[in-house]
Design a protein that fits this description.
Helix content: under 10%
Structural class: mainly beta
Strand content: over 45%
Radius of gyration: 13 Å
Number of strands: 7
Order of helices and strands: EEEEEEEH
Largest sheet: 7 strands, antiparallel
Mean pLDDT: 87
């Protein structure tokens, strides 16, 4: 499968080591967790937009929630949530 991952419109596919996405039926919330190579030069911050294209088709849009660095493995773990993040953050 040909996958392209964009962060704020910029292709970061070559820096993404792995990603997994799920959509929970009970809550209706979609989550994305991806691992980015530590050598990625730009800073990822909360509310950055992550778009995923699979085989040329836009399949999902997420907003960055949590960024954590795992120093020994030189991986940045990025946790994202779909547009429901707006609603959740509004009530917090």
């Amino acid at each position: 499968m040909n996958t392209v991952i964009l962060r704020n419109g910029i292709d970061i596919s070559s820096h993404v080591v792995s990603y997994s996405r799920e959509h929970k039926l009970c809550t209706g919330i979609g989550n994305l967790e991806m691992e980015v190579d530590y050598t990625y030069g730009s800073t990822i911050i909360p509310w950055d937009v992550i778009d995923i294209y699979e085989d040329g088709r836009h399949v999902a849009k997420y907003y960055v929630s949590i960024i954590s660095n795992a120093q020994p493995s030189a991986i940045i773990t990025v946790t994202c949530q779909d547009a429901s993040k707006r609603l959740v953050d509004y009530f917090i």
